Each structure stands twice: as structure tokens, then as C-alpha cells.
Amino acid sequence: MAKYLLFFCALLSLAAFPAEAKQKRFELVTMSGVGEASIEGGDYIAARQRARDRAMEQALWKAIAALSSQEQADKSKEALNAAIVSKGMTFVHSYRFSEETINQETHTYRVAMEFSFFTDHITKHLEKGGLKVAEKPKAVVIVDERAMGLLGDSGLLITPSATEELFKETLGDAGFKAFGRAKVRSLKNDAESLKAVGGDAAALKWLAAQCGAEFVVIGSTRAKQAEKTMDTEGTVSVNIYDAKTGASVWAKEVVEKVPGQTGADKFRAVRAGVEKMDALLIEFLAARKAAPAPAAPPAPAQTPPQSAPPAEKGTN
Fold first, then answer.
1. Between helices 263-290 and 162-173, what is the axis angle to 10°?
2. What are the distances in angstroms from CA 284 to CA 173, 271, 277, 279?
3. Rounded to whole angstroms, how far apart are CA atoms 135 and 158?
4. Which of 145, 181, 184 is nearest to 163 (CA)?
5. Mean of the pLDDT values across residues 89-98?
6. How far is CA 38 from the centre of its chain?
């Protein structure tokens, strides 16, 4: 009984760290824009402001098209301008100037900028206007958090996982709709789900298909006494599997040491490893988002139709 109390106390202490690691998280969409304005009466500040507003409008239209579609944006331009674009700065989380130039010959102020907009704020207005919002890509995340070794396979999908929740938030920030163990349990096939956790390719493809996911993230955490020292090692492993093939497309393992060997030290070590792994996951997702889409394969060469052979002349 004491072991179980220790386990659940440790779970509670671990569950606190996502809030510390990531506070006030917002889902954002970032777009660039360029604006230009004439410098009237030598007022550079006013010209800069007008150029910024025009850059923001351009970036906001890009965000609207990305969250719905370019076709819908074009068809509903007047309504969207009144509901969203005219109130553009209320949708802005942050912005930065990447370039500023003044053309003395044309007396114009030009800026290139990058804006981050609140995704939820824009999508609510899009839906209110009857526009269809683009569906987010999906991912499945399961993290084996049985660091204390007190629960068997049957407990894996039942117990909460703070690390899993943290990784789901990270995927959410990257534009994914992430499913965790609650969704996996609802499939009512724990045996197949556990095979997926073990890296079985067929089970991984099955799990991804059930959730409509692009990939499956399988992680694990564990803690042990470091060799020849009084430290504790926290190990965090993550494998990302392609939904179509079940093959691993990204795999990392992080080991972090903390002094001490108590139960609390085990969870401190795991926590340190999780925070480092989360940073690596963010890097992977950012690189994946920035990578150009694969080029479509060239169309097969058209074989010119062959003319029918001349008819043979019959002989009498």
C-alpha cells in the first residue's frame, strides 16, 4: 500500500511541471506582410504606422486563407474585411519588423514584417460568418510514464501522464489536434494499442488510421540510480512513426542526472529530461513545418498512339 501511495504522490508532483514549463500558451499562426505609405509633411512616424497597418492587413489575409481557404477568403472579402481585417490589431499577438526602408525619391516608407495572430480568435469569427475552417492535421501521443515500475501493461492507458499532456500541448502549438490515452482507450482495443506502444508497425498504422492521424508519437520515461555515483538518471525516449508506413521518422533519447536517490529525485530527473525532450520536439515540428512540400512525381511520358498495321491484301 505504501508503494502505491508513493507512486500517486509522485504523479501529483510530476503533474505540476507542465504549468511551470509553459504558462499562458496560445495557439498562433504567423504570416509575413509588406506595407508602403507616402511620407506626408515630413511625418515619418505617421508614414511608418500606415505602412505597418498595410503590412498587417496583408499578413492577416494570408492567415485567413490558411485557416479557411483562398477561395472562401476571396468570395467573402467584404464580410471578412468588416468582421476581421478592419479590426486587425485585436487579433495580433505579436509582431516584428524585419526590414524598413525610406525612399527619398518617391517619399515613401516601406516595411516588411512578421505577425503572429491568435488562431482561435480568427477561427471563431470565420465560423460566425458561416465560413468553413480548415481541419487541423492530427497526431496521437502516448507516453509510458510507469517510471516507478508499479503498474503492468493493464495500467498504462489508465493512469495519467503529465509528459503526455505536455507533448500534446506542444503539438497543439504546432497546429495539430493531438489525441492522448483517453482517445486511445475509447477505441476499445487495448491489446492492439499496447502493441503500437511497443513499436509494432501494423499496430501503429491501425492506431493512426483509427484517429485519422498523420503520425504517432510514442514516448517513455524512467529513472534509475547512476552508476558509481549518488545521482539519479532520468531517461526520456521519444519515437515518431509515420502513419502510412509505421516506420520511425524521428527518434531521440535524453538522459539527465540530478543529485540524490530518493523518490522525489527520480521524478526531478525525469522532469529535467522531459523539458529537454520537449525543446527537441519543438525543433522537429518547426523544421517539419518549414520544409518544402515534396515535389509531385513527373507525369509519365505519353506514348504516341501507334497506327494500325496496313491490312494485308488477300490472295485469291
1. 20
2. 13, 20, 11, 9
3. 29
4. 145
5. 94
6. 40
CA distances from 25 to 16, 166, 308 (A): 15, 11, 69
d(CA 95, CA 112): 11
Cα of 127 vs its chain's centroid, Å: 22
Q: Starting at the earlier edge strand, list the strands of the sheet with 215-225.
A: 177-179, 138-144, 215-225, 231-242, 248-259
> In angstroms, rounded to a whole number, what is the distance separating the alpha carbons of residues 268 and 245?
36
What is the per-residue burial (b if ≥16 Cβ within 10 Å, else e) of 57-85? Answer: bbbbbbbbbbbbeeebbeebeeebeebbb
Distance (Å, rounded) from C-alpha 131 to C-alpha 129? 6
Distance CA 9, CA 15 (A): 10
Q: How far apart are the first and last CA of the chain?
A: 106
- Residues above pLDDT 90, as percent of the chain: 57
Whole-angstrom Cα distance, residue 263 to residue 223?
A: 9
Please report where in the chains the cell 508602403 appears, as a residue: 36
pLDDT tens-digit map of 205-258 = 999 999 999 999 999 999 998 888 899 999 999 999 999 999 999 999 999 999
What is the spatial distance between Cα 167 and Cα 186, in angstroms, rounded to a whole number?
20
